[in-house]
Amino acid sequence: MEIRPAIDADHDAIWNIFHKIIAAGDTYAFNPQMPREEALAYWFRADTHTYVAEENGRGVGTYILRPNQSGPGSHIANAAFMVERDAEGAGVGRRMAEHCLNEARRMGFRAMQFNFVVSTNVREIHLWKQLGFKIVGTLPGAFRHPEKGYVDVYVMYRSLLS
Ligand SMILES: CC(C)(COP(=O)(O)OP(=O)(O)OC[C@H]1O[C@@H](n2cnc3c(N)ncnc32)[C@H](O)[C@@H]1OP(=O)(O)O)[C@@H](O)C(=O)NCCC(=O)NCCS
Predict the structure, then answer these.
(1) Which ligand 1 atom is nearest residue 63's CA?
(2) Which pLDDT tens digits describe the chain residue by residue (162 residues)?
(3) 154: Cβ below 6 Å to ligand 1?
(4) What CATH number is associated with residue 137?
(5) Is ligand 1 within 6 A of the CB of residue 21?
(6) Are 147 and 124 in contact (CB under 8 A)?
(7) How many domains does the chain divide into?
(8) How far does Cα 152 stand from its chain's mean position?
(9) Distance 132 CA to ligand 1 centre (A)
């Protein structure tokens, strides 16, 4: 598997992954009907580093890395990950997460923060805990899950200095 910076020619592959994940509505607080142009504008925002994971020439995952805040908050990174539904659970997420932590360190970020980790997303939480993230806050009922109703959301954080 190769992980590399995304280019314009990756738009189709990224949208293909993105639209299924947001349509499911169980992991991201995005409009499930978000149009393609809006989604790609978000994923390729000017302050954002966008990557794709490819296996045999097929896009199997994508992630973004950006400052979590601007100005005096810009030394903390934020990231978001999406794995093609039929490639889930095969290690793509872990490989992208490790790549992302290396990239963030290389760019000089001092820590990484996830602002909105849905508490029912057990795979994601397992992955972040294994990679050294801690839950530093809980937002009660902040996500309206399509099947489970109002569920908690975690803020997760890890330093990149050690
Ligand atoms: C969350 C996501 C990025 C993880 O990627 P993935 O390729 O499916 O995950 P991996 O195969 O790398 O597995 C990651 C870890 O979770 C574990 N895991 C897999 N399924 C699990 C489950 N149901 N419960 C607990 N842990 C699980 C794996 O065993 C692995 O841990 P290990 O390395 O100790 O074995 C991916 O599933 C995804 O895109 N989900 C939808 C969107 C999303 O939730 N994005 C995250 C928001 S930033």
Answers:
(1) 48
(2) 999 999 999 999 999 999 999 999 999 999 999 999 999 999 999 999 999 999 999 999 999 999 999 999 999 999 999 999 999 999 999 999 999 999 999 999 999 999 999 999 999 999 999 999 999 999 999 999 999 999 999 999 999 997
(3) no
(4) 3.40.630.30
(5) yes
(6) no
(7) 1
(8) 18
(9) 15
**124 within ligand 1 shell (Cβ under 6 A):** yes
* pTM exceeds 0.90 for this model: yes
Q: For tokens 């925002």, what's the residue?
A: 45
Per the CB < 8 A criterion, the answer to whether 158 and 133 are in contact is yes
Alpha-carbon distances, residue 153 vs 8, 22, 33, 86, 136 (angstroms): 33, 17, 22, 25, 11
Q: For residue 103, what are the contacts with CB-CB under 8 A and spacing of at least 6?
A: 49, 51, 65
Q: State both tokens at 24.
A: 């499911």
Task: Determine which residue's CA is closest to atom 7 belonging to ligand 1.
Answer: 93
Q: Which domain holds residue 15?
A: 2-159
